[in-house]
Design brief:
By secondary structure, this protein is an alpha/beta fold. Helix content is about 30%, strand content about 25%. The protein has a single domain, classed as 3-Layer(aba) Sandwich (Rossmann fold). The longest helix is centred in the middle third of the chain and has 14 residues. The two termini are about 30 Å apart.
Length: about 240
């Protein structure tokens, strides 16, 4: 589904990513884990087309994404939920969810895609007419992921979906992401804390200073000396 090879990115002459290579197979949930500033968000933003790589290759289902705009990548089936959610505050919840259905035409109708978003995040139904500015942090996060889902995305990039949320709301979002995976969608999550990585994740990659230093299962990560050194406080 997604293959990243030798990715290198510079921002304002500072090297942020160094030879990052990993893959996410169709239907998998894979997590990029690392401390703040490790390069996780840069990786997702580069995949989405917001940042140009200095070198490296990004392929989605054998399609080379080089030179493709963010809109073109969305139309190829990549949905993105950024760390700060970025919902449209002047639009209602219903309008936010409907908007991506205008962006990408698929075999599913707009009504089907909207219904699926509410199926995965049923709590949003009660806030359909509420503007984005009147939502809590957890509600904005749900809406951001639901909006990516209504794109009918094959691959969802979720940046820190549990960051800053109350412990009460985290299980609900974790369960909703699990439902997305069970629907056959592919999910790549960036996460700062190993304790927030869902136990149903197929694989995790640990990032430090722009490089991947570990790749394997969550169980192996918990016993890996390098991982414990880097993010041992979250074990």
């Amino acid at each position: 589904m997604l293959d990243v090879a030798g990715l290198e990115v510079e921002i304002q002459n500072s090297e942020i990513l160094r030879g990052v290579s990993f893959n996410v197979s169709a239907g998998e949930l894979v997590c990029l884990v690392g401390r703040n500033g490790a390069g996780k968000t840069t990786t997702l933003r580069t995949i989405m087309g917001y940042l140009p790589p200095r070198s490296g290759v990004i392929r989605l289902a054998d399609i080379d994404l080089a030179g493709k705009s963010t809109l073109e990548r969305a139309r190829l089936g990549i949905g993105y939920s950024p760390e700060d959610s970025e919902v449209f505050g002047e639009l209602t919840v219903a309008e936010n969810i409907e908007l991506p259905t205008w962006t990408r035409a698929t075999g599913k109708s707009a009504d089907e895609r909207i219904a699926l978003a509410y199926q995965v995040f049923p709590n949003l139904r009660r806030y359909e007419s509420r503007p984005g500015t009147h939502l809590s942090g957890g509600e904005r996060k749900m809406l951001s992921i639901a909006r990516a889902l209504s794109l009918d995305a094959d691959l969802l990039l979720l940046d820190e979906p549990f960051e800053g949320l109350s412990p009460a709301i985290i299980p609900a979002i974790r369960d909703s992401i699990h439902e997305i995976v069970k629907l056959g969608r592919t999910v790549l999550i960036a996460e700062s804390e190993l304790q927030h990585v869902p136990d149903y994740a197929n694989r995790i990659y640990v990032m430090e200073r722009g490089e991947l230093v570990f790749g394997g299962t969550l169980e192996k990560a918990r016993h890996d000396a390098t991982v414990r050194r880097i993010i041992g406080e979250t074990l």
